[in-house]
Amino acid sequence: MRGWIKGIVIVNGFVLSRYFRLGPQQACYLPAPLLRKGPNDVLIFEHYKGDGEIKFSKEQIYEEAL
């Protein structure tokens, strides 16, 4: 979640993850059983001002800690 600072990710009413800019993890893992057929709700609560861009990927993204 590059460009985001600190917050919470909620998927279909389940609190999936908290995130913080300091890394090294730059992604949230979403287990398949949390998804349902058809539309899914993804809510991102950012404590500060994020950049508004979200990217879904099949691979985990790791980088150097800031």
Automatic annotation (TrEMBL):
Residues 1-40 form the Beta-galactosidase galactose-binding domain. InterPro entries: BetaGal_gal-bd, Galactose-bd-like_sf. GO terms for molecular function: hydrolase activity, acting on glycosyl bonds. It comes from the Eukaryota. It holds the Pfam family BetaGal_gal-bd. Keywords: Glycosidase, Hydrolase. This is Glycosyl hydrolases family 35. It comes from Popillia japonica. The lineage of its organism: Eukaryota, Metazoa, Ecdysozoa, Arthropoda, Hexapoda.
